[in-house]
Specification:
By secondary structure, this protein is an alpha/beta fold. It contains 7 helices and 11 strands.
Length: about 260
Amino acid sequence: MPGRVAVPVFPGTNSEEETVRACLAVGLETRLVHWSAGPKALLGYDAYVLPGGFSYEDRVRAGAIAAHDALMDAVIAQAQRGKLVLGICNGAQILVESGLIPGTGPLRRPTVAFAPNKPNGRFICRHVYVKLSVAPERCAMTATLRPDEIIPMWASHGEGRLAASHDELARLDRAGYIPFRYCDRLGNVTPEAAPNGSALGAAALTNEDGNILGIMPHPERDAWTYQQRDGAVRLAARGDATRMLAPAGGIRLFEGLARALGVRA
């Protein structure tokens, strides 16, 4: 049966329970796999979702140590066989440090970085919007989204600013490696919409084959109406528990993962 998803957990990972809950909500059979279980524990899964947090205390650089953990050996090997990998916040940082996204260089030799936020390097926690900026079919997990779809999420990181050489950024922009960009609630992509000064307004990266997606804002923290900070949907749901607990916002990304695995979300 397709739809078995592993959520790897490293020392310092958080948001793993919320990530599991979002996966379960769209019909995916999901299990936490702790780093101590070893890479063999990840075999037999159809996809991997790396959650947020501060793996190994974000020493050296965010995600740098976890990228060299033995558990990532299995994730890398399976990703290279075409299995789906979704990285959220610290998970996206781990994917960059492992070289899986954007995948334009050797493994574990990153060609880009999620660098400290501008202007002052401080941690931010802010409700944001991201806009699909490539054709939906460019990435397996966005294939069910509408063109230019806007999704609300929560940005919660200290190192989320995409940084790379001028040539590398031009390549990423030209070849569709940036599937989501920060925007305002109306979908306008402006420098002001990126809360961290990210180059090209990038909120996410994918690889050439589109089976790997790393996104800095948290979709699992805006997956139900009650998690939304404001807006017409949440306002209309006040006093109605059923509507307040209805799927919304970031659940769309998990629905895309489920559909890509052949599961009807």
